[in-house]
Amino acid sequence: MRARNLLLVVVAGLASAAFSYLGTGLHPIWWLLWLAPVPVLAIAPRLRSSAAFLLGSFAWLIGEMNQWNYVTHEIEMPLRIVILFFVIPAVAFDFGVLFMRSFLRRGSLFLASLAFPVYWVAYEYLTEIGSPHSTWANLAYTQMNCLPIIQVASITGLWGISFIVFLFAGTIAALLSGAGKPWQRHALTIVVGVVICALFLFGEWRLRSNPSAQSVTMTLIAKDLPMSVYLGPEEQALKLLHEYADEVRRATPAGTQVVVLPEKIGRVSESRLAEVDALFSSTAAATHAAIVVGLVRRTPSAAFNSSRFYSPDGKLEANYDKHHLLPGIEPEKPGDKRVLLDQPSGRWGLQICKDMDFPKLSREYAGDGANLLLAPAWDFNLDRWLHARMAVLRAVENGFALARSACNGLLTLSDNRGRILAEAATVPGRFVSITGKVNVTPAATFYTRTGDWFAWLCVGMFLVLLASRLFTFIWPEVSLSVSAAQDP
Questions:
Q1: How confident is the model at residue 340 (pLDDT cuts 50, 70, 90)?
Q2: Do 298 and 403 fall within a single domain?
């Protein structure tokens, strides 16, 4: 019997590890995350708390190894940061397992199924508040290939996506654990089944109810470059900017309304900036298309990672400075102002790359009436799909279209429902471009108006559930007498 139980524990741990390995990371299989916590959560009530903790640690840590090459070689994190990168989420998952286990061992089936998703959303939200990387590690992004389910972000933000995934996992685990009475199991199945079906139906309805009253024709252009080019001499930067201007003239089809180039194509001193402005002003006038150029402006006092907008008549119309810089890699000074451009098709906003990891900034743009975001970017090759989809989710949350042009990444056009309208991967040594029409019909969302209400609701519910467990721990006799009085 002991050997059989041990085998069951090993199988549960390996199954959760395999599902999380394939269902998370830089290229996730979205539906496997729905299953990843189930084996460990289901078997946890049969184990001592220390054994359940170790099992959860093992499973989640193995699953996280899908990002080992990325963090150690691609972005070259210091060893101590690598350790924290893997250990903190594994420990957080462990505490979630123990939290749900505490309810299952008391037969509280409904509270158990709710405990894990509430805990996980609270953990992700509080982490996002304190992290310089904001929502980078949020598991909601794993679901970007499931268009119906991500539509809930228009109501709850990305927090509702993680919640529904883990509500499903928690419910299945609760049912498999054997806890609860038959009527509780039947009721739980019906209630959660209705909730999940309703969310999928809402998603399908929202995908179909997207009128296309106005559109913008866009061209995105980029090519892969090593970081040494961005940090190289100014003459090299000016040469590359001239190459981009020539490519815009060559590759931009007639009728294009805006061309978006990647971020920090080169570092340009204040004394040479007029030359760059003249170059792209003449290019915009020649192509009759607005142009968004990403570069680093070096002033005597500071440098800024900037996005410059040239109108179709050749006028430098706006300059946006990146708000959220990558710690340890981008030494520039952050900006603090949003930039909006009133156009015949609506209001266009400017952001740069990592800015779109932060939901609040995009929500503020949407609150200002932006219906199209133009985002130069620079990715790290391996993370190209994930980082592009993080920006796409901002579009779903706030109802705007997105044009994101990334060096060492993807050229991505998406609508306000998260549909990818055109996409291409950049390559070294030559320019890649895509052109497409993007629906920019305004689509105001509940999330834009109300913000992170759902995340705070989960934080509150977690605190209530945690308080109930502490009450049970401190006054077990009172808790047992109440349970006996309620038991028919």
A1: very high
A2: yes
Question: Among 461, 457, 407, 121, which Cα is nearest to 260's?
Answer: 407
Do 399 and 357 fall into the same domain?
Answer: yes
348, pLDDT greater than 90: yes
Residues 121 and 235 in one domain: no
Q: Per the structure block, which two tokens stand in for 431? A: 């320019």
Which residue segment(s) compose the domain that 291 sits in? 215-448
Contact 432, 411 (CB under 8 A): yes
Same domain for 460 and 411:
no
Contacts of 254 (CB under 8 A, 6+ apart): none
Burial of 187 (0-12, 13-18, 19+ CB in 10 A): middle
| Alpha-carbon distances of 321 from 12, 22, 228, 331, rounded to whole Å | 49, 37, 22, 13
Give the number of domains in the chain.
2
Which amino acid, 275?
A: E
Q: How far apart are CA 98 and CA 365, in angstroms?
A: 40
170 and 292 both lie in a single domain: no
132 and 199 fall within a common domain: yes
Dihedrals phi, psi of 441, to nearest 5 degrees: -60, 130
Mean of pLDDT over the chain: 93
Cα 17 to the center of its chain, rounded Å: 22
Tokens (6 digits) for 106 = 């008391």
Whole-prediction pTM value?
A: 0.94
